[in-house]
Write a structure and sequence with these properties.
By secondary structure, the chain is of the alpha/beta class. It contains 20 helices and 26 strands. Helix 10 packs parallel to helix 14.
């Protein structure tokens, strides 16, 4: 969710970069920085902790002067917020400045190799690898563009990278690797802006916002090269790419829908970035530990817990149900997930050794607020996982774990659900870490798994066409049964909810093992079943349930693991996800179900972003 702005033009770059960063503040950040290439060919860098406003000074003589620059707002992942960890970063010889959005999965391996070769690092970030790798390419005689492509082929994971070269003809290179971290490029009156989101381009068009303008969106595995005289596009092999500009209006700039048809689709596509943002200041990838500095509950209190209760409504309840499984599995504490609307009427036993975790994107849901107040009245400890700073939930709770998902406009929650899952998993690992329920190797493995998640989600989002095909096959059914086992039961319920919310088709999420206890009576040729059947320890059980449906002439759509040709041949329609660790399955399986609901709603002509009778935040009981 980091903000990126780059500029090459004929005006002073500092105020343009500053304005672009201010327009990206909605994305959230903890530090900011700007690098300007001055008229003498020197890289002048200014950084600050906290707000972009801290870079503003009334004395313009103190600001770097130049017409080429890049800027960044950072959400900490590798290394806490600090001056040294703020972007832009440079290498050993200060030839290149870089800003970066993403997680480099193989950074420890690359950093060790660079250090063995004599490179000295000044930050704890994975991002600082990038200028060093580019400088290695330059020292080997590569051009700047070749050095950037060489760097891109060495790092693993989904990234957005912008590098500024200190040379006679200044060059900005922007790269998009995988599907996290979008980049948009706008040319206007001899100037070019590159940004991580459309609002970053507003400074270029601020005198002409009433007109439409053209921009180009960088796709996965593409690079843009920007000089004063040209803007060109290549793939990572250096082959020229012809890009079709997209026309945008003033409303596009302000609402930031980009080139997506709906906010919901845009927010689905943002989820690789959202996952990375959820690690902000919380995951130490060097030491393989979780650090929740914003959790104001002592280690001794966590050790003394004898019960955890997670509460939420709708999508947040489904996140709570998955979180319940993780807390029991990782931390070994009895846990339950409760509907916030029923919580205060259930007379559950709570005391100071009970931890209540509320989950809600808005922090204003009336039922969830009432549940939190009830927990406080019973003396329970209270944490909220929320996406809205300053909301009622954050004021009631002892501690807030911000989802860090950024503004979500689509009424049907997508990226905040995924952010909830990531945050509650981090909390479950943290509690297990404190209580000694997981050893260092087990914690390290879970953290390594999480580091791969942005790339995995990005890979799934590369091909949405299969979900359009699925949508066309099931949109004629009036009833769907979503089946899952283990943590996938909650994901099945979430998939059914999304379909109900935006396509108005009746759908029901159900434990597959319970199908024989009632729902099987409904199955015939007129009812479709969607089965979540990834390769895991419950796979054989799930296969049996699927065959029971097929034996009754039921139509089955299955989400399977890549390579599962046998089961794929037994169902009517199959879609595939990569083979992933069990701990990642809830997040990975969520994406196909969101896309399926979206495309079914499109086929049916429904208002995707504003479904009937629904509101983004339910503030009445």
């Amino acid at each position: 969710m980091c903000g990126i702005v780059g500029y090459v033009g004929n005006q002073e770059a500092w105020p343009i970069i500053l304005s672009g960063l201010l327009h990206l503040e909605y994305r959230g950040y903890d530090s900011a920085g700007i690098a300007v290439l001055d008229s003498c060919g020197r890289l002048e860098i200014r950084k600050t902790m906290g707000r972009v406003q801290n870079l503003i000074t009334d004395d313009l003589s103190q600001t770097p002067s130049g017409t080429v620059a890049l800027g960044h707002t950072r959400w900490a992942t590798h290394g806490p917020p600090s001056y040294d960890n703020a972007h832009p970063h440079t290498g050993c010889n200060q030839r290149v400045a870089v800003v970066h959005n993403g997680i480099i999965e193989n950074f420890l391996e690359l950093k060790k190799k660079l250090e063995d070769d004599g490179h000295i690092f000044s930050s704890q970030t994975d991002s600082e690898l990038i200028p060093h790798l580019i400088e290695v390419g330059l020292s080997n005689g590569y051009s700047f563009e070749e050095a950037c492509r060489s760097m891109a082929k060495q790092i693993k994971g989904s990234q957005a990278i912008v590098a500024l070269s200190k040379q006679d003809d200044p060059v900005l290179c922007g790269l998009r690797l995988g599907h996290a971290g979008g980049l948009v490029i706008a040319d206007y009156e001899g100037q070019t802006i590159l940004g991580s989101a459309l609002p970053a381009t507003i400074p270029l068009f601020d005198k002409d916002l009433s007109s439409s303008h053209e921009v180009v969106f960088l796709e996965s595995e593409e690079m843009v090269t920007i000089t004063r005289s040209r803007t060109s596009y290549q793939n990572l092999d250096g082959c020229i790419q012809v890009k079709e500009p997209v026309s945008i209006s003033a409303s596009d700039l302000s609402s930031n829908k980009g080139n997506y048809s709906h906010f919901m689709l845009k927010e689905i596509m943002e989820q690789p970035d959202v996952v990375g943002a959820s690690f902000k200041e919380r995951v130490n990838f060097h030491n393989k530990t979780i650090n929740l500095a914003d959790l104001h509950v002592s280690d001794s209190d966590i050790s003394n817990l004898n019960r955890v209760i997670l509460v939420g409504c709708g999508t947040s309840l489904h996140a709570a149900q998955v979180g319940r499984s993780w807390i029991e599995e990782f931390a070994g504490i009895p846990a339950s997930a409760e509907s916030a609307s029923e919580f205060r009427y259930n007379n559950l036993t709570m005391d100071h050794k009970t931890l209540v975790i509320s989950i809600g994107q808005s922090g204003e849901t009336a039922d969830t607020i009432a549940a939190m107040e009830h927990a406080v009245s019973k003396g329970a400890r209270l944490i909220t996982i929320c996406n809205s700073e300053g909301s009622q939930a954050t004021r009631i709770a002892e501690s807030t774990l911000n989802m860090l998902a950024g503004l979500e406009i689509g009424v049907a929650s997508t990226k905040t659900f995924l952010a909830s899952l990531c945050t509650v998993q981090l909390l479950a690992i943290y509690i297990a870490q404190i209580r000694g329920a997981l050893d260092a190797d087990q914690v390290g493995l879970l953290i390594d798994n999480l580091a791969t998640l942005p790339r995995i989600l990005g890979d799934i989002l590369k091909d949405t066409g299969q979900y359009e095909d699925l949508a066309n096959k099931i949109c004629g059914y009036n009833d769907l049964l979503f089946l899952g086992r283990g943590t996938q039961v909650a994901i099945a319920s979430e998939g059914a909810l999304k379909l109900k919310e935006i396509s108005y088709i009746h759908a029901e999420g159900y434990p597959a093992g319970e199908m024989k206890h009632g729902p099987i009576a409904l199955i015939d040729a007129h009812m479709a079943t969607l089965a979540l059947a990834p390769k895991n320890h419950l796979y054989d059980k799930m296969v049996g349930n699927i065959l029971e449906v097929k034996a009754r002439d039921g139509m089955v759509v299955a989400i399977l693991t890549e390579g599962d040709i046998d089961l794929g041949s037994r169902v009517d329609v199959a879609s595939y996800i990569p083979l992933v660790p069990e701990s990642l399955l809830p997040m990975v399986l969520t994406i196909p179900l969101q896309l399926l609901a979206y495309y079914v709603a499109l086929v049916k002509g429904c208002d995707v972003d504003k479904p009937r009778n629904l509101a983004k935040s339910v503030t009445v009981e």
